[in-house]
Every structure is written in structure tokens, then in C-alpha cells.
């Protein structure tokens, strides 16, 4: 390996780590640390940023780190390198989640370049959607993206199932809101207006007064806790529930948690822009994202959510535990200069509530 190649690989590794910091994480806790040594990147979970009340097993922490790992991999591929990933390489070091060797690769394809371009553009949307339906080709593309990362994205087409999942989410939210330690932990990661912090949920990241969506309403997190924080909701264009979906994995081990994170990040990066008169040709064809996440739903018995979801999938998949409940939908994109509704309709990514 010559000096120039070594310098290029080292720079690529640093660039990949910087991209990882844009990954979605639970409450934007960013529960990871990275180390770079030569051509190797090490990803470790950061237990100091784990949610000790709501995530005692580190499941959400591992999911978040899985999303960061995908950003590393996509960035290296976009730079023309081959990321050689070893997941959970040392059983005696449980916090070491992955190592990535940076090797010379090939010129990236269009899909990889488009996916990489969306990493820094992904944002969280915690409100409703327009009444415009999510195009079937887009849903199929997102299902494909999740499957490529060992996940299974399952749209909930049954109104009854969606209604039950909304009820479970609301009940879980009510239970959690009565837990003082849970509330205090949530408040720790709620960023007040004007804060210089780079982690936590910003005050402008959710509506001041969330409106009920139709036909189902999924209870949002209450980050403001009585403060008049947030942004004004637009009831005219943000009143629809959108398409409800479950993102599942084959099992409930740490490996599956990490796969869930990679699947969410892959969907988030596959932001597709859709013209009303045009079909979506393939993942990465534009700049809109995916789904709303509701981690409250599994709190009150995963079996109930799983049983109702089973009505829209094959029996052999019934044992897949649901990782995340999410909503997909369309929102209007505003032109920055003109302040008018753009002709494009953007699918907004919600990575985490």
C-alpha cells in the first residue's frame, strides 16, 4: 500500500465517521463512539448515553448504532471503497458492535450515490401527512430497502389492524406518562429553544399543539412537557395518518436489533421525490424519505401488535417480533425563496420519536 493510498483510506474513514453522526437515533441520543486506526473503523456503543429507564437492555441503543453503521458503509461505497464489516467481532467486548476495514473498491453506482446524498438531508417529521396516498411503487421500494438489511417492512392495509395499533400506542403513552423516572429521562433529551446542544430533540422538531390525525391517531411523545415549545402545525395539509407499517426482524437478539437499525437507516436514506403524474422507478430516484416511528406500541404486549399484524402477512412470518411501528405519508414541500407549495410532493422521513 503506497503512502497516497494510505492517506486516501484514512481520509475516507474519517469522512465515513462524520457521516455516521447524521444517523437517526432514539431521541437523538447518538449513543455511539467511533475509533479510527489506519484502515479500520471501530464502532462501540456508548452506555453513558443509553436510556437507563426506557431502554435497560440497550435494545434501542443497538438499533441506533446499527443505523450509524449503515451510514459508514454507504459513505465508503460512495467514495469508491469496499467496507468489510465484522459485526459483534469479540464476544468478550459486548460494547464493540462492529469493525469496518476500508479496502479499495469500485466506482459507485447511481443508487449508492443517491443514497449517500440523502444522509445529511434526512429529517424527522412528527406531525400528520397530507391525504395523498403513498404510491405503491414507493412502498415496494422501501420494502426492498429494508429486506436488503435483513429487515421486513410490512404495510398495514387493514383499517382494523391500524386502529388496534393506534390504540396500543395511545395506551402505552398513557402508561409511560405516569412513570416519573421515564418522564424525567425524556425531558433530559428535550432540547429547549436556543440551545447550543447538538444532541437531543430540538424544540422545532415537533408541533406545539399536535392535532389529531384521521382515520387513526397515534399518540406522539410529549417533549415540551407544558412548555410552549415546537412549531405551529399546518392543519390544512397535516391531518392524515398516512400509511401505517411495521418494521420487523427474524429474531430478538442483538444482531437483529442492529439489523433493525440498518433497515431503518436504509429506508430513511432512500428518500424519493414523487411527481403526482409520475411513477417511482427505483429506490434512490429522488429526495423524499420514509416513516414515522412509534416505539411506544410494543410496550403493552408485543403479542397483541403482532397478532393483529399477522392478518396481513403469511403465517410462517408470525414469529417475527415487531421492531418499530411507523407511518409513511406525503407532505408538501415549500420553496425556500417563494414560500409557496412546490409542485413536487415530498415523502418526509421520520426516523425516531
**What is the average of the pLDDT values?**
76
Kindly report the spatial arrangement of strands forming the biggest sheet: 1-2-4-3
Cα gyration radius (Å): 20 Å
Query: How many E-type strands?
Result: 11
Task: Name the helix and strand elements from N-terminus to C-terminus, one letter apiece.
Answer: HEEHEEHHEHHEHEEHEEE
The count of domains is: 2
Helix content: 25-40%
What quaternary form is this? Answer: single chain
Number of helices: 8
What features would you describe in this structure?
By secondary structure, the chain is an alpha+beta fold. The protein has two domains: 3-117, NADH Oxidase (3-Layer(aba) Sandwich), CATH 3.40.109; 136-347, NADH Oxidase (3-Layer(aba) Sandwich). Helix content is 31%, strand content 18%. It has eight helices and eleven strands. The protein has helices at residues 3-20, 59-78, 110-117, 136-148, 159-177, 180-188, 254-269, 302-309; strands at 32-37, 40-45, 81-87, 96-104, 152-155, 243-248, 273-274, 291-293, 322-328, 330-334, 341-347. The strands form three sheets. It has a four-stranded antiparallel beta sheet, with helices on one face. A four-stranded antiparallel beta sheet has the order 5-6-9-8, sandwiched between helices. Strand 10 and strand 11 (341-347) form a beta hairpin. Helix 1 packs across helix 2 and helix 4 (136-148) packs antiparallel against helix 7 (254-269). The longest helix has 20 residues, at 59-78. It is globular. The termini are far apart. Mean pLDDT is 76; it is low at 269-319 and 334-353.
Amino acid at each position: 500500500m503506497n503512502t497516497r493510498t494510505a492517506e486516501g483510506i484514512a481520509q475516507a474513514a474519517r469522512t465515513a465517521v462524520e457521516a455516521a453522526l447524521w444517523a437517526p437515533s432514539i431521541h437523538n441520543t447518538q449513543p455511539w463512539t467511533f475509533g479510527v486506526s489506519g484502515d479500520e473503523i471501530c464502532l462501540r456503543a456508548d452506555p453513558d448515553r443509553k436510556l437507563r429507564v426506557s431502554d435497560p437492555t440497550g435494545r434501542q441503543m443497538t438499533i441506533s448504532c446499527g443505523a450509524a453503521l449503515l451510514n459508514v458503509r454507504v459513505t465508503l461505497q460512495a467514495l469508491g471503497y469496499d467496507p468489510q464489516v465484522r459485526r459483534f467481532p469479540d464476544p468478550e467486548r459486548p460494547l464493540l458492535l462492529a469493525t469496518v476495514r476500508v479496502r479499495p473498491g469500485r466506482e459507485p453506482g447511481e443508487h449508492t450515490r443517491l443514497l449517500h446524498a440523502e444522509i445529511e438531508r434526512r429529517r424527522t417529521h412528527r406531525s400528520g401527512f397530507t391525504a395523498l396516498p403513498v404510491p405503491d411503487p414507493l412502498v415496494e421500494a422501501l420494502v426492498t430497502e429494508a429486506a436488503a438489511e435483513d429487515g421486513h417492512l410490512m404495510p398495514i392495509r387493514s383499517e382494523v389492524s391500524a386502529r388496534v395499533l393506534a390504540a396500543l400506542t395511545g395506551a402505552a403513552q398513557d402508561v409511560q406518562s405516569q412513570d416519573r423516572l421515564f418522564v424525567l429521562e425524556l425531558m433530559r433529551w428535550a432540547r429547549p429553544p436556543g440551545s447550543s446542544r447538538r444532541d437531543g430533540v430540538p424544540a422545532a422538531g415537533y408541533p406545539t399543539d399536535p392535532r389529531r390525525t384521521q382515520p387513526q391517531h397515534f399518540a406522539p411523545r410529549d417533549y415540551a412537557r407544558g412548555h410552549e415549545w415546537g412549531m405551529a402545525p399546518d392543519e390544512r395539509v397535516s391531518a392524515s395518518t398516512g400509511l401505517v407499517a411495521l418494521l420487523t426482524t427474524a429474531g430478538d437478539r442483538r444482531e437483529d436489533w442492529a439489523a433493525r437499525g440498518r433497515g431503518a437507516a436504509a429506508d430513511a436514506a432512500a428518500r424519493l421525490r414523487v411527481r403526482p403524474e409520475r411513477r417511482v422507478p427505483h429506490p434512490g430516484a429522488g429526495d423524499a424519505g420514509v416513516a414515522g416511528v412509534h416505539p411506544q406500541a410494543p410496550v403493552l404486549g408485543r403479542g397483541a401488535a403482532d397478532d393483529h399484524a399477522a392478518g396481513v402477512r403469511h403465517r410462517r412470518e408470525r414469529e417475527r417480533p415487531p421492531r418499530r411501528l411507523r407511518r409513511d405519508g406525503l407532505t408538501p414541500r415549500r420553496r425556500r425563496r417563494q414560500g409557496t407549495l412546490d409542485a413536487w410532493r415530498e415523502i418526509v422521513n421520520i426516523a425516531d420519536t
